């Protein structure tokens, strides 16, 4: 007699198959859901999950051609793709840079794109940058010009991050923007001379009586340790006078130094820290060259004793103003070439030289307050031809930094 399989024996095969199917569907759903955020979750043997990055796809038009100097080019009018954000779309902007809101009558300065000769910069992609920065820290170190670059970077990425998943904190001398889902931070650190000085307080820093410690950097460098991407800048604060008071070794021995000599000693102190403290396998270091000033309009036209006030167009011919010190450029080149650690130069000086139109002028702040009506009527004395409006020139500096980081990511 043939014995038919009992229902119980049949079920013992169906149940494991059904469970396997459910587990497969569940895993597939996790993969599909999280692929939207370009990440995968894998269960660890000991419990919990590990997040793995999905590779960023880098297309051909995002590749900077070999041998192309991205710092050599010209500004071209582009009111279709630029600006990359607006004052209204970035509520985190400070009053010092919101020139339109502060009364500037034109917005042309927002619509210029940097076009390198013979190649293209990759278009800025906030999601790709955040993926590059996942589980990492990017810190911009320097003075208020560098703070403008920080503000620009925050504006470039913040719009793609949902509310509640981003934050901006002020922890003097730092400002910290966090993208929570990426466990990433973009930070700014106030160090106008890189070495220590009596101007190191983030908000209450003296201007008239500057004193620097040319051999001391430890208080600052403690905040830089372990940061994945460091971008340094220091220039404008050195240029207040031809000489500067400084100490070296003995705090009580204050001497007057020629500015370029003091700058060289200070940069060597910084370079020694770079060589002895940076792990080039885990950390990348950049140095941003001088951000030019446009204090005298006779340098680019038949001037009337004015400055950057009223300028609405970039300079379209070869130009190098007295606001950029060639001796300082030479010092930077010499010191960086002697480093054992690779420090990449972001040579933004020449491209920014052309942008006499991009400064805050009378549409910014002085000592934390917007200019009064009377002050605005006196642009020769009150126009700010050092800092930049946003959106504006610092966005291009960040586009270049992003392009370099993307290249590094692709090679890795």
Features:
412 residues; alpha/beta; seven-stranded mixed beta sheet; 10 helices; 29% helix; disordered N terminus
Class per helix and strand makeup = alpha/beta
In which order are the strands of the major sheet placed?
Answer: 6-7-8-5-11-14-15
Straight-line N-to-C gap: 70 Å
Question: Which residues sit in consecutive blocks of at least 5 with pLDDT less than 50?
Answer: 1-11, 30-51
Question: What is the H-and-E element order?
Answer: HEEEEHEHEEEEEHEEEHEHEHEEEHHEH
What's the overall average pLDDT, rounded? 88
Number of domains: 2
Describe this structure in words.
There is one protein chain. The protein has 412 residues and is an alpha/beta fold. The chain folds into two domains: 14-49, no CATH class; 65-411, no CATH class. The protein has helices at 7-35, 126-132, 144-158, 218-224, 259-277, 326-337, 349-353, 373-376, 379-382, 393-411, and strands spanning 39-43, 49-53, 73-77, 112-116, 137-142, 166-171, 174-179, 184-190, 196-197, 211-213, 229-232, 243-247, 255-258, 284-288, 343-346, 359-361, 365-366, 369-370, 384-388. It has a seven-stranded mixed beta sheet, covered by helices on one side. A four-stranded mixed beta sheet has the order 9-10-12-13. β14 (284-288), α6 (326-337) and β15 form a beta-alpha-beta unit. It is globular and about 55 Å long. Residues 1-11 and 30-51 have low confidence and may be disordered.
